[in-house]
């Protein structure tokens, strides 16, 4: 946890002010029992009313000063803690955005959400307590002990017995609570995972009538978390009654032995009253530390989980080249893509997802990829923006290995349309402009026209200013795909990748879109992954994948003569008349 507190550096002045104010507040609190002792011994006992009024007002001013210091310290400690939380959330988010899909798969989205929200909140709450209580409590305990010694040294022997007993109780409870707090955070992850799956997959759950099953799964995860939380709370529930019993017995012991010392004339009444207050300050200080110990184990577990994320080094690292073309002759056009003997396996997989893939995609041409389910089509195109890195071989863009380029430079050259269309909350225009920050209204409208999205956008009441719900839930699947395509087209990239992006479109829209692309993006390299033969028939080059390998490369007519796998795909989709 201390490792994370380095982020407090920008807030060192508020932290110093907080510590200074807490120090002043502690001195004021320690001075109050002495003032009360003087009032009793020199005012009440002697009947000096003027002395009582004078020192009573002085005592009131000290108490007011302590209150003001406490309020200001609360403000600065809260400001420091919330600022720390903001910086830590930002650091975690920034670090996570550099993760490859491999790291996301390793930790899990649900766990990353829990760590960025719940775990950081735990640390933030403890930090507020630490800035106040962890500083104030030791000062009050040590200062109270010193002041108690100044009142009566013999009576302070009571603390020799009391303090070790309190320490043992705290240690026993904390040692049992720490493992349970770690378990709680993992069970929150599990609950979030079940909840996330249940909400995102609600259509599938309802269509298969599995609502009761999902309820039972959620209840099991919820019950598991609840039972562990109750168990840990039962353990810590012992602490407060135990502390109160120790404090009460301590007070009885002080009054008992102090009464004897007053009886023998070795102590004054005011000093005994002050001693009792100092004893309570010492005991309450230890009690405050106990409250911190209730929270520290959980915050410590949370800090470990956050450090685990921050300590992960992304597998994919930036190169230092800008990817300037190193080609000659006819290949000097920007957007020339080449795969050289590329092999890739997912982490933990027994077989490679793609093996020994080699082909070239040229600017101004349409290169299509087709194959059966699980052939490796989507895997192949996901390697180009470096969502994953190849195990062996090379992928070159403009003659430069993409691993030697910066990820930002590489991805700025690519217009990528994923298999599953993803939209963000905002307007239609904002979703298209996501592909290019400075896109003008004309550029947005042109991209929408090419993507065949302008027709349905114009029918919306607010047009391009029409709102899009989270995940695009207020538009159809085909409309989502067309907006995703428009988002990729607006950046005018030299390499356009369509990962099965036409599947939700009808044949007419599909044909119109491909014709518009061929006309408007004629100078770009176009890579189309498709399931439908009709989508790829007119491509300049078709790559057929089968069982993770290239089964054939050529035009539609060439492959019909040379590639059996392609013929099987065609015959399964088209009639004999269409094939002819």
What do these coordinates show?
The protein has 580 residues and is of the alpha/beta class. The protein folds into three domains: 307 residues, Up-down Bundle (ABC transporter transmembrane region fold), CATH 1.20.1560; 168 residues, Rossmann fold (3-Layer(aba) Sandwich), CATH 3.40.50.300; 73 residues, P-loop containing nucleotide triphosphate hydrolases (Rossmann fold, 3-Layer(aba) Sandwich), CATH 3.40.50.300. It is 62% helix and 10% strand. It is built from 20 helices and twelve strands. A six-stranded mixed sheet has the order 6-9-10-3-11-12. Strand 11 and strand 12 form a beta hairpin. Helix 4 packs antiparallel against helix 5 and helix 13 packs across helix 15. The longest helix is centred in the N-terminal third of the chain and has 49 residues. It is elongated and about 120 Å long. The chain starts with 11 loop residues before the first helix and ends with a helix. About 2% of the residues have low confidence.
Give the gist of this structure.
This protein is of the alpha/beta class and 580 residues long.
Q: What is the CATH top level name of the largest domain?
A: Mainly Alpha
Number of helices: 20
Q: Major β-sheet, in short?
A: 6 strands, mixed
CATH third-level topology of the largest domain: ABC transporter transmembrane region fold
Distance between the termini: 71 Å
Query: Which architecture name of the largest domain does CATH use?
Result: Up-down Bundle
Number-wise, the strands total: 12
**What is the total domain count?**
3
Beta-strand content estimate: 5-15%
